Amino acid sequence: MMMRFTLILLSACISTSLLLEASSAQELLAPPAARVPPAAGRSYTAPPSIPSLAGETAAIDRLGGGEQPAAYDLAALLSLASNNNPTLRQARAHVSAELGKALQAGLYPNPVFSYEAEQVFLDVPGDKDSPGEFQGGVVQQKFVTAHKLQISRRKYLQRARVAEHLTMVQQFRVCNDVRIHFYRTLAASEILSIYDELLKTAEDAAVTAQELYNMGQARRPEVRQANVALQRARLERLRAENHFRDQFRELSALVGTPLSDGSVVGELTPECDLLTFQQALDRLLSESPELAAARAKLAVDATTVRREEVEWVPDVIVKAGPGYNFDARETTAMAGVSVEIPLFDRNQGTIRQARADYARQRQEIQRLEYELQQRLAATYERYATAVQHAIEFERVILPESKAAYAELLESYKSNRVDWSDVLLAQRDYFDARRMQVDNLLQAREHEILVYGYLLQNGLMAASGVTPPGHIDATPKPR
Q1: Would the pTM count as exceeding 0.90?
Q2: What is the three-state SS of 118-147?
Q3: Do the strands 316-325 and 330-339 form a parallel or antiparallel pair, or are they unpaired?
Q4: Could you read off the pLDDT of 276-320 as tens digits, one per residue?
C-alpha cells in the first residue's frame, strides 16, 4: 500500500515539475507548450491540413517563401494609377475635345466659288442657240455679324475649363480609391498576421491537449475539441489570406496595370487632424472640384444665352465676279448682296431654352451644395466614430486586454487558473486587436473621403461637360 502511494505521489510530482518547467520557458503572451515524453501506448491523429485552391499553389508558394514578393508603397501605386488608369485618359480626352470645339466654333466660313451662265441657248437675231448673255466665275463670302464667332469660341473655351475641373474630379476619384484600397489591403495583411498568430496558438493548444491526455491529465473529448479549434483556426487563416488576395487584386485593377503578387507597406494610423464638421463643410463648399465645375458650367450657360441672343442678327452674304457678256460682246462684272430678314424666326425658342438651361444650372449649384452637405454628414459621422473608437482602443481596451491575458497566463503558471481561462483571455485580446485594425481602417477610409472632397469610384467613366437636356448644336458649334 505504501509503495503504491509513493508511486502515485512520484508521478504527480514529475507531472507538476514538467508543467512548471514548460510554463517558465514560455513567453509572456504566448500559450505554453508542455515538454513531455512521447506517448506510450496512445494513438493520436492530427487534423487534416487545408488544401490550397486549384491553380493557387504556385502563388501561395511565392508568397510563403522562395521568390521574394514585391512590396508596394502608396506613392508608387498613385504614380502607376496616374499613368495607367483609363478614366484619367478619358477625362483628358474630354478637355481635348472641348478645345477642338473651341477651334471649330471660331473658324470663319469658307468662301464659295461658282460658275454662272445666264440665258444660255437663247435665240437672238443672227445667232441661234447663243451662249447666253453673261458667263463668268462668281465668288461668294458670308460675313458673320454681331461677334458670333468670338462668342462661340469663348463659350467652348469656357467649356474646356469645365472639362479641366471634371478632370480634377476624376483625379480625386482615382487617387482616393487607390488610397482606400491600399489601406484595405494593408488592413487585410495585418489581419492575416493576427490569424497567423492565432493558428500558431491553436497548434500549440492541440499539442498541449494531446500531451496532457497522454499523461492522463486530460480527457479524450478535450483533445477532440482542441483538434476542432485547430481546424477552425486554419480555415479562418485561409479566409483571411483569400481576403488579402482579393483586396490586392482590386487594388491592381484600380491602378490600371497588373501588379505582381506581393504586399503593401505603410501605416494604418490616421495622419490628419480630426476636423470639426463645420470646418470640413466650409472646406468642402469652398474647394470642391465638383462645385468648381458646376460654377464654371454656369459661366458657359451665361455665354450660351448671349450667343443665342445674337444668332438672329442677319449675316451679310456678298458675291462678285468677272464674266463676259456675249450680247454686248465685252467683259463685264457682277456683284450682289443678300441679307436674311428676321421677320418670323428670331431664334426665340432657342433663346428661351438657353435661358432655362442657365436657370437650371443655378439651381444645380445649390442642389449640389446641399447634396455635398448630406454626403458629408453621413461620412463625417462614420469618420468621427472610427477615430473615437481607435483612440479608446489604443488608450484603454488593448492595454487592459493584454494585461488581463498576461495576468491569467502568470496565474496559470502558478496553477491558480485553468488553461481554458487563459485561452478565453487570449481570444479576447486577439479580437480586440482585429477590431482595432478595423477601427483604424474605417478612420483612414473616411479621413480620405473627408479630405478628398467625398470623391471615390475610380473606375467610373469620366464625366463629360454637357449634362442631359442641354443644347449642343452641331455640326458648326455655336
Answers
A1: no
A2: ECCCEEECCEEEECCCEEEEEEEEEECCCC
A3: antiparallel
A4: 999 999 999 999 999 999 999 999 999 999 999 999 999 999 999
